[in-house]
Fold this sequence. Notes:
Blueprint: E1 2-5, H1 7-18, E2 27-30, H2 46-51, E3 62-67, H3 75-89, E4 95-101, H4 110-122
Parallel strand pairs: 1-2, 2-3, 3-4
Amino acid sequence: VLAGFSEGAQLASYVQLAHLDYALGGVAVLDGYPLPPLCHMPGADPAAARANATYVGGDMSWMIWWGESDTIFPVDASMAAYRGIFAALGIEDALKVEHTEPGQPHDLTEAEIARLMSFVRAN
């Protein structure tokens, strides 16, 4: 499982979708807006989105956790970007955990780490 917070989360999503040609055991994105070419995929033609991806298999497992009060990567735009990526690539079922934590800023919390550990154990 590859997990990251902030810039690490950006790299985790990039590595799985735009660098590797196989599924990791899981990918956990904790407050990290997608990097190019991923951020260009929402609303794109599925063929164009897939041309910029290195892996889109149905065996991926993703966790996305966001702080509702994140001022670095605002939750609404960020979650819309990830949902758009998954839709363009046709991998909506890969998103196993999607959570927005009320009041959480751009920071890690004990609840987030506990949920991450559950995700890792499940994968």
